[in-house]
Amino acid sequence: MNSYLKSKRGSKTDPGQKYKTKHEPLIHITKRTSVSKMAHLGYTLIAIAVALVFCGLLVTAISGIDPIKVYVEMFKGTFGGEVTKLKSYHSVAILLAISLAVTPAFKMKFWNIGAEGQVLMGSLAATYVMLKFGPYLYESMLIALMFAAAILAGMIWGLIPAIFKAIWNTNETLYTLMMNYVATTIVGYFIMVTDKSGHNNLGIINERTQFGWLPRLFGKPYILNIIIIAVVTVIVYIYLKYSKQGYEISVVGESRNTAKYVGINVKKVIIRTMAISGAICGLTGILLVAGTPTPSMNPDLVGGQGFTAILVSWMAKFNPLTMVLVSFLIVFMRDGGAAATDALKIDASIGDVLTGIIIFAIIVCEFCISYKINFRGTKKGENK
């Protein structure tokens, strides 16, 4: 009797008994170790094709319009004429430039959500120089000063949260996000003081004299902007992949403790990287405000592309060359969708829905490529 009670008592307190009766989770996710680049590209193209077919069926169900007609109008709206084509390429270049700006910080796992504000401050600095010194400086000196002011303004706007993060370990996501609203308010105040008409838009800057307008190459707009951003893309790719500082960014992103152990000054890397990100944003700012056929300044100049750039950088896995293709896809869906809905007289929100479906399909595809979903096994010893 006593031995029976002891055996029962022991079975209740035996940790091994509890472990044996504990079930594993029904689903657990593991990271895939090897996926070739060709397979990755193939799966992505299949996901995009499936999403396009689904979008076509959805358009037909909602509006009754042939989906082929919708895609033809989207293509025309993006590449329909020479001016339209150049404008689309310029949109790709601007989105690419902002994506390049956030990439070094993101690769370091510094979540820079403030690209919108950094671009705005670069645009504001260039506009101020254009208005203040336009009548008094030679054109070449004026443009050089505008570039310097824009790059410096974007750099300073990026350095402020970086310094607080490096010294006091503040939350960079909230800090950079708040800096966007501060920048928008400053730009709104500048326009209110400069233009007494009460409009929230400065209009065409120096429309009569055209002081500070970037020159047109081959007599066509946007070409200079596209060339500058193409050069920046190559520089950022080489910097991140082959330079010592690019290697330090990767190490800090993997583990800050490891970076400290091997002698990398983490605070210095954070500040330096955000200075570079801010500088690229400032450069983008002057291209937006002075590199278009009708330069203007308003708080919505960037148009939310600072947040879209985060998606582009992430989807491209922080590879500047891959970002070209992702930016092209985003612009095609965004601008082409807007043109198609306008031409076919259907709800403009359909274009946004199509873009969202395509992006969602790519995100799901990326997840399935990078991770594997495992279900609890039913065979004995399967989950040991």
Q: What profile does the largest beta sheet have?
A: 2 strands, antiparallel
What does the radius of gyration come to? 26 Å
Helical residues, percent: over 70%
What global shape is seen? Answer: globular
Please work out how many helical segments DSSP would assign: 15
- Approximate strand percentage: under 5%
Beginning-to-end CA distance, first to last residue: 37 Å
Number of strands: 2
Mean pLDDT: 87
Low-confidence stretches: 378-384
Q: Structural class of the secondary structure composition?
A: mainly alpha
Strand order of the largest sheet: 1-2
SSE string = HHEHHHHHHHHHHHHHE
Describe the fold and architecture.
It is a single chain. The protein has 384 residues and is mainly α. Helix content is 72%, strand content 3%. It has 15 helices and two strands. The protein has helices at 2-13, 15-21, 37-63, 67-79, 82-107, 115-133, 139-168, 172-194, 223-242, 244-254, 256-261, 266-290, 305-315, 320-344, 349-370, and strands at residues 27-31, 371-375. A two-stranded antiparallel ribbon has the order 1-2. The radius of gyration is 26 Å and the shape is globular. The two termini are 37 Å apart. Residues 378-384 have low confidence and may be disordered.
Summarize the structure.
This protein is mostly helical and 384 residues long. Helix content is 72%, strand content 3%. Residues 378-384 have low confidence and may be disordered.
What are the main properties of this structure?
384 residues, disordered C terminus, mainly alpha, two-stranded antiparallel sheet, single chain, 2 strands, globular
